[in-house]
Amino acid sequence: MSYVWFLVIILNEGSVHAFPSDSEAECMQASQIFHDADTNAYLTKSVSCIPSSEYLITAENKDKTVKQEFFY
User: Fold this and answer.
1) Which of 22, 41, 55, 70 gets the most CB atoms within 10 Å of its CB?
2) Can you give the pTM of this predicted structure?
3) Burial class (CB in 10 A: 0-12, 13-18, 19+), 44
4) How many structural domains are present in the chain?
């Protein structure tokens, strides 16, 4: 299964950026490298590795929530 890792950048008020990875190990390594580089800058809220299917469901649900908020 492919994994993606995502980060939330505080300066962009919660924007989510997903980057694909070939394996969970590669994803975890990239996550740790980014976390170590961001130690002093504090630009991110979180850096996580999740299965791509979970990411797609989360993005879809978030999109529905945003649309609902727009129309009310």
Assistant:
1) 55
2) 0.54
3) middle
4) 1
